[in-house]
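Notes from the 1:1 (GR / supervisor)

We went over the backlog. Supervisor wanted to see one worked example end to end before approving the batch request, so GR pasted a single chain during the call. The sequence is below; no edits were made to it. Supervisor asked that the structure be written out right there so they could see what the output format looks like.
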Amino acid sequence: MTITAGIDVGSTYTKAALLVDGERLEAKAMNRTGFRLAEVAERTFGEACAAAGIAPEEVDSVASTGYGRHQVAFRRLNVTDLTAAARGARFLFPGTGTVLDIGGQTMKATRVDEGGLVTSFRLNDKCASGTGAFIEKTALYMGYDSQEVADMLDGADTALPISGVCAVFAESEVINHLSQGESPGDIMLGAVASLTGRSVQLLRRVRGEPEFTLMGGVLRFRRMVELITEALGAPVNVAEGEMVQFGPAVGAAAAAQLRLDRTGGSAEQERV
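Structure output shown during the call:
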């Protein structure tokens, strides 16, 4: 039996996942990333090990991914975001052909083959209006926190237009809607609709094909999944609950297992 760990140090949350023999998710943990990336990575890894009832030294290999992946000093493997998301999607949904990963800083659309390898991709990392951070910032501006967004969306009736091509212009539209007494829920739905439009454009640019698998914290919101499904005209895969945020961490752990299988347990640090 082998145990591998994937640690995804994202801009908003850090996630750790443990796999047994690359086939079974044994445990997971998640914390806000903050500014001390090395510390949060080690703490989250420790919490996942504790949840599995094992000591950290019992883990055979650790792979890191995410924007803070280089801060994980105890990693053996350094996995790119695209590779981790692709392998995580195929682990969770083996029929995945296209992945949409909406993170706090970037949005990524990726085509993958049957082996989980990336065949093409497109990124939207030029402006916050095309990322998950846009939703959280819109909520905060209106006096809500991210935990209240789902209820706001469920109670919304009309998606108010928010068409700004950047976060600054979009924020101006939010201010204008508020000044006219519009419902915060309808404003939030408009923000989600705007993000949905950008995500579907990215999927079309990558020539996405079914099965579509969605991941990232904003996909916790049912209304966003519904909007993307409607726009694509095809069913989508979405992991339940907080698992929607663990795709890259799971994928990194799967990549660590694959490298162990290929190298026979070499301890040399590598990048994939």
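Supervisor's comment: The longest strand covers residues 24-32.
Batch request approved.
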